Amino acid sequence: MSENLDQAIDRRLCIAPMLDWTDRHCRYFLRLISPSALLYTEMVTTGAILFGDRDKFLRFSPEESPVALQLGGSNPEELKQCADIAEQLGYNEINLNVGCPSDRVQKGKIGACLMAEPELVAESVSAMKQTVKIPVTVKCRIGIDDQDSYEFLAQFTQHIITAGCKTLIVHARKAWLTGLSPKQNREIPPLDYERVYQLKQDFPDLEIIINGGVTSASQVQSHLTYVDGVMIGREAYHNPFFLTAIEGTVFDTHRVFKERSAIVNAIIPYVQKHLDEGGRLHHITRHMLGLFHGQPNGKLWRRHLSTEAVKPNAGIDVLTAALDFVV
């Protein structure tokens, strides 16, 4: 059953889990642009799910699907419990974060520091695999600190394969666990796509998704000649409409996509529902600032939403007024 579900999810185009960015409102918005991409949540820790406000962290709309939950944790029993909860809620995949380099998550034994403990990662994957029928995947770096040889990455990969993992998402940069901020870790360590390509050659039965520095449809096409899928991060957030170019390239060259203005009109009922429930307009519009990136008057769209949507009583009229600048 799990094997069939692994194959059923199309991971050729994925949108990366991004802390403080890919919340449920962002994912709803991105789904209006990209019908086929696999969306990921922000990283959610096991503690937040087991001891915090579960609805706050795990709530999502059916329209977002397919959507994967990224978990942060290193206790196999807690990860197993959280994976079971996520499956019951309707998530399509569980992804274990073994790539975040921040000091804060390292203190909780979460993220990239776990690459130094491949046996624990394997045990965690195995525990979740034995509990759920949906796919369990891992997202990692190509190395950490001075443990950045290809042999290190290959040995780590073999451990997770042995545990039953069939999909590995690889950010093609090493992570420095000390001395660099998370932002610097996304920019300073050089990209090494060739190492990820080599991993696919050496482990041909493992589905490998490449991540890091992808900003164009042509890059996606190039990567897909070597690996199984591409995960896009910040470019999808800052310039979300470019996902239509990738969708047309990867999935269906004849597909007709919504115009930018149609996307705004399509999200209005969702925004109104959020406002009716006591939410704030900027909770949603902060994710929409880049929709008219590179378009005439796109700066006016962004400026109006940035200044007006944050006001306490901001309503739909702010969104429609912003749209008037660009249509």
Fold and architecture overview:
It is a single chain. The longest helix is centred in the C-terminal third of the chain and has 17 residues. The termini are far apart. The chain is of the alpha/beta class and 327 residues long. It is 45% helix and 13% strand. Helix 11 packs parallel to helix 13 and helix 14 runs antiparallel to helix 17. The chain contains 17 helices and 8 strands. 43% of the residues are buried. It has an 8-stranded parallel beta barrel, surrounded by 6 helices.
What number is the mean pLDDT? 94
Q: Helix and strand succession?
A: HEHEHHEHEHHEHEHHEHEHHHHHH
Between the first and last Cα atoms, what is the distance in angstroms?
Answer: 48 Å
**Count of DSSP H/I helices:** 17
Sheet-strand content, in percent, reads 5-15%
Number of strands: 8
Binned, the helix content reads 40-55%
Question: Radius of gyration from the CA trace?
Answer: 20 Å
- Shape by Cα distribution: globular
Question: What class, by secondary structure content?
Answer: alpha/beta
Point out poorly predicted stretches. Answer: none
Main sheet makeup: 8 strands, parallel, barrel
Provide the spatial order of strands within the biggest beta sheet: 1-2-3-4-5-6-7-8
Features:
327 residues, eight-stranded parallel barrel, 17 helices, globular
Gist?
The protein is α/β, with parallel strands linked by helices. It has helices at 2-8, 24-33, 46-51, 54-58, 76-89, 103-107, 118-129, 150-162, 182-185, 193-202, 217-223, 234-238, 243-250, 260-276, 282-285, 298-308, 316-324, and strands spanning 13-15, 38-45, 67-72, 93-98, 136-141, 167-171, 207-211, 229-232.
